[in-house]
Predict the structure.
Amino acid sequence: MPVVLLSSAVSSLYLVSQALYRRFGGRFLVNLLGKWTTDAAVTGGGHSVPVGGIAYYMTAPPSMASAAANPFRAAFYVMVVLTACAVLSKA
């Protein structure tokens, strides 16, 4: 159950972050929440992916090579997921 709640919260973060970035893309607080791109070379299609901000660090690294290239992102993601699941399971 905690994983489902965390997934729902992260999905809400993505939705709000994408909407704000499309509307107010150059502002500091919006960029802090998340920067997004729809570049076909990066995404492999028309999907948006976070490339900066909190949304970027709340996304799992796509591969082990990516995790090795950016160990802070991988460690932050694991720490947040484990902490949030522990807190939500206590509630």
